[in-house]
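A note from the maintainers: we've had questions about how concatenated examples are separated. There is no special marker in the raw files; a new sequence line simply starts the next protein. For clarity in this README we add a label.
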Amino acid sequence: MDNFVVTFARGFGSGGKEIASSLAKELGIHCYENRILTLASQMSGLDEKLFQEVNEKIRNNGGFTSFLRGLPRSRSYIARNEQFVSDDKLFEYQSQIIKSLADQESCVIVGKCADYVLRDRQNVVSVYIEAPRAFCVRRTMEHMGVTEEVAHATITQTDKFRANYYQYYTHGNYWTNPVNYDITLNSEKVGVKNCVKLIEQYLLIKGFITPDMIQTEETEKPDQSG
């Protein structure tokens, strides 16, 4: 069977990354997110730190926006001003990696405007995961161990970065526009596990996978029926 790629865009705290990882695990394929930055660094010969500092972040009006260096790992919320050159070139390197991965293997790719980079390919399924703010705040507090205030600030800032990044590199397209995607799911209403199941069903409909390719916990257990 030919290669296929599932791309994920996701609101922060929506569980999009967890859904992407679970999908990849059940299908026995790789899930790429920040590893793309490592691969782009290796290909370009540039310090990986450059890619990390502009991970789904863009410049604004000729300068660079203030942005978080990573996400807060404590109850403090730390923002820094960073600068570097050739952010467009860094995006180009990332895009080359994404296209190369799509050529070589079936995989899941999270973020990085992958749906846009691979927009002309017929073997790509693009997914957008979102959820109400209260759900995202609760998940962020639980997973990051931060206060509600920090969770709100992190979600607002990160989603703003992602939206601006997407708009810039897609030449004006809007990040949450459902027309950009094959599937848009509300992870609170559907449930994280059921989101995975729905995406798998869509892949089955498209003919990208067969039922035997789905490795659930039940199918992985040996037969002990005697």
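[label: protein 2]
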Amino acid sequence: METTTFETDIHCQKCIETITPILDKDQSISKWSVDLEPSIKTLTVSGDSISTHHINELLGKGGYSILKENKESFWGSKPLWKRASFNTLNCLIGCSIGDFGMVFYLQAFYPSTPIVWQMVLAIIAGLITSIMLETIILKSREHFSWSLALKTAFGMSFLSMVAMELAMTGTDFMITGGKAAFNDIWYWLALVPALIVGFLTPLPYNYYKLKKFNKACH
């Protein structure tokens, strides 16, 4: 029997619950464990004829993988880029709900609101809805209590959310001048570059947080 340790993109107890039935069912594995303490989580497997390819196939069934053993560059981890993109997308959805919702509301009912205040209120609303969405995700996906989910969501990368809000609001303002022309197709098309810029702006920072500290924005 041999024992081998692998660096993986597993990151929490929920991940372990996902892979447990997969690894437990494999007859070549006698025992296994995951160390969640280091920044890069390690999977230790004991059994007969344990190979990197076989373990990677098993992890793949749960949506995870072994990190490449070669000396990849700091910015070269595809699994972490994938996870960072997913986290950033969740943040983008949450921010967009409040941001654009506030713009629509002010333009429809308070069109005389100064553009500076429209931008400030839109950013604040976006941050609030982003935190609310992440709280719900942590509650349902990680099974946190509501109080812990809210505290964790608020404590996540606030800088990332602020950067996203500023990028989206700034791009939208440069294209539309801050006016919500609901009957103009070009206004709605302008939302596309705003969302793209909002997604790309915090993405490298979210990757950095995952790679360096294993901390997710969302």
